[in-house]
Each structure stands twice: as structure tokens, then as C-alpha cells.
Amino acid sequence: MNIPLVTVLGRMTIAFLGLTGAVTTFATRSLLHCFEPPIYRRQIGRQMLEIGYYSLPVVGLTAIFTGMVLALQSYVGFSRFSAESAIPNVVVVSLTRELGPVLAGLMVAGRVGAAMAAELGTMRVTEQIDALTTLSTEPFKYLIAPRIVAAIVTMPMLVLVFDAIGILGGYLVGIYKLDFNEQSYLRNTIDFLEFMDVFSGLVKAAVFGFLIALMGCYHGYHSRGGAQGVGTATTNAVVSASILILTANYLITELFFAR
Amino acid sequence: MAVPRIAISGLRKSFGPKKVLDGIDVEVAIGESLVVIGGSGSGKSVLLKCILGLMQPDSGSIRIDGEETVGLRRAERARVMRKFGMLFQGGALFDSLRVWENVAFGPIQSDRVPVDEAKQIALQKLGSVGLTPDVGELRPAELSGGMQKRVALARAIAREPEIIFFDEPTTGLDPIMSDVINDLIVQCVKQLGASTISITHDMASARKIGDRIAMLHEGKLIWQGPVAEIDRSGDAHVDQFIHGRAEGPIRMQVRKG
Ligand SMILES: Nc1ncnc2c1ncn2[C@@H]1O[C@H](COP(=O)(O)OP(=O)(O)O)[C@@H](O)[C@H]1O
Ligand SMILES: [Mg+2]
Do B92 and A136 touch (CB under 8 A)? Predict the structure, then answer.
């Protein structure tokens, strides 16, 4: 069968617009349920633990190696024109503005977004979500709102941890490998750090947290067709969250720092 | 004449081109047990889900105690839902919660019963389906199929609903366990005085649970009548189904959709 290219493009556009509309509706409904009682505090607590505490090892490891390699690589570059003293500043600004939120976001998307899609997807195909409704409990309030609230609140905390550990990684390489003076490394780190560097990173983190939970819940909630359907939902949740994180990252950066 | 507990008329539901329910008319009186039989994929579960509001019917009317529920808004829907208990086909137990928390879920989350009290209710309901309190501490995944069905039954009756739906309560169980579940259903329903709709393929179960039987075939209820009359329905489809013959007017469908 030979379908004209225009037809294919047209169908893709329509499918894309339809999906955007569905996701927007889903997001609005989820957010409204975050503010409307009953609020399930225990569910929020459980999710915060799941998203925050259990992501610490992954985030910590990512952070320390990122900080270390950042120091090492900037040394290679900056020593070519004797600007080694800028290294602490480069490390801290890159971490707080970009690498902290983006890398933590991608790691958490892989860990938590996937888990959310798998859990909700399984609940969908085993009719547990329908069972909630028959027990007069709104699934958006009980399942989705707590995940979204927890992700928005927890991601900035995770990114703060990422920043701290990343700076430590850079510091260790700086001191023990590149023979920086301890005092001057620290002074260069702190003196040039601006409030906006950290703040913009935290705003990004909150937005990324929202996107991760939204994609995990959206794909899980709408999954169908048994184990394979849940698998597809999980993959889609991670891929779409990652793409949205990278896109949103550019847009937020533009918003904060473009002149 | 008394208002029927459930009155359905002209109910239609399609998925794409496939008409799953094509004009269903049926009533369930107060305290009556209706059994719906029909082949796999004939739309029995869809019928229950439409009544529960889990699916939106394309057209038709569903009245519960005389109140129209099609197109009801969410808050109103929750109020009507309070009258229902549902035993899902696969049990649909919450696997992140312990057994007693499953049973106590309705009382705690929607009736705002304090946790201690709800736990007592849960243990009592577990007792009435023949489970000991120590089972209450297990996770659903640790239970056998028959035990899961019992827990699901306990959860369905925990809020003492006026209307209970049983979706294939004995499918996948051995004959002895099936009979145990049937007895439990009959006993629980009698105790609560509830109206029920049960779905089953299992004629032994249908005869035991039901006051009336209706057969769903190609989107329509092709026959309904008292249990005693099922053997002389005069309908070739019904005869083929209750005797489980491969030969007859009913063609097995291969594809789901
Ligand atoms: N959510 C859905 N989307 C599309 N088709 C569905 C959906 N739910 C059920 N169906 C279709 O409706 C038909 C009846 O399903 P169901 O009521 O589950 O059958 P059963 O009588 O075995 O309970 C099946 O062909 C099924 O594929
Ligand atoms: Mg079914």
C-alpha cells in the first residue's frame, strides 16, 4: 500500500495535537485534585520517601562523578590559557544551573517515572483503579495527586543534595589531583556563586518533578492490554519525561537568563 | 408497585465499530438476585461497569432506586456509589496493602471510620468469609486464588452495601472452592438483604445464587426468566449454553475486538 507523504504527516499532526490535548486535560485535572480535599497526607509521605530518600544513592553517585569529571575537564580546557582559577566557579555554576537539575531529573525519570507507570499500569490492568472508584475513592486524588505533589516538593531537595555532592566531587579532584589550595578553591566556589544560579536550578527541579510524575501517572493510568501494555507504558513514561525535561530545561533557561 | 432497585432501559455501548451492548432492558427488584450468563467477551463485565459508572454508556438509562445515574456528576456519583459493592473478576485487591487494610479500605477512606474500629469491622468480615485474623496481616499476593476471592468478597460487603455485583466469582476455582464461595455469597446476601447481579459461566453457581437468570448474547438479553424455567426456556442459544455444547447457534468468536 502506498500512502502519500502528506497523508502521513497530516495523521501524525492530528495524533500529536490529540495527545497534547489529552495530556493537558489530564494535567489540569490532576492539579485541581492536588488542592481539593480530601488530601491523602500518608500517600504524599510515602511517595516523598519513595522519590526522595530511595533516589539518594543514584543521585549521589551521579553527582559525585559529575562534579569530579567537570573539574577534570575544565582543567584541561582552562589550563590552555592559564585560567585555572576559574575552575571552581565553572564547576559550581554548571552544577547548580544545569547539570544538577537535568541529570537528577533524568535519573529520577528513569527510576521513579518508570516505577509510577508500572505501578499505576498494573493497577489499571488488574482493575484496582476501578476498585478504588467503587470504594468511593477518586483515583486522581488517591493515586495521582500525591505523586505529583511529592515529586514537585522532593525534586528541589534532591537537586540541592546533588549540588552539594557535585561540588564536593569537584573539590576533591581540585585538591587531590589538580593541587589547588583548599582555601582558595572554596573561596572561588562561594564568592562567585549567585543566588539566581541556585534558585533557577531549584525552579527547574520542581518543574521536572512535575513532568516526571505527570508522565508516569498519565502513561500508567491509560495503559491497557496486560503485561505488555504495562511495559509499553513504562517505556513511554521514561522517554516522554526525558524529552520534556530537556525541552523545558531550554525554555526555563531562556526565561531566566536571556536578555 | 415498588420502585425497582435497578432499572435499565435501552442501554447501548460500543467500542469503535463493535457494538458490545445493543439495547439492554432489565430490572432488579429489591432483595432480588439476578444472574447474567453469556459467552466470554459478550459484554457482561461491560454491563456491570456501565451501571457502576466506570464506563460511560453511549445511550440509555440506568436508574438506581428511581434516580437516573447516566450523566451524573462526580460528586453525585460518589454518593450513589456508596450503595454498591463490587467483587471484581480478578479480585482487584490492592497489592500494596495488607489483607485487612483492603477490607477496611471502604470504611476508612470513604466512610471516615476510625482505623481501630475499621480494623474490627474488617476482621469480622474476614471471619464471615471463613478467614482467621492472622490472614489479615498477609499481603494479597501471598494468598491462593480461592483465598483472594474470599478477601475480595469481604471487601465488597464491608460497607454493607444495598447492591452487590459479583463478576465471575467462581471462575478459575476448583469445584469445591467454587461451592464454598457460592455458599458464602448466598449467606452474605441473605444477611444484608442486598440486591445482586452476578455474572457467571458456571451453571451450578447460577442455579445456586440466582432468583432470575438473563442470557446476554450479541449485545442483547435474549432470554430472562426465573431460575426454575431455565431448562425449558425454549431458546436454542440458552440450551446450548447451559449444556455447554460446541454445536448450536452460538459461534465462538476468535478475536476480542
Ligand atoms: N476498555 C475497553 N476498550 C475497548 N474494548 C473493550 C473494553 N472493555 C471491553 N472491551 C470489549 O468489550 C467486549 C466485552 O468485554 P467484557 O464485558 O469484558 O466480556 P465478558 O462478557 O467476558 O465479561 C470484548 O470484546 C472486549 O474486547
Ligand atoms: Mg468479564
Answer: no
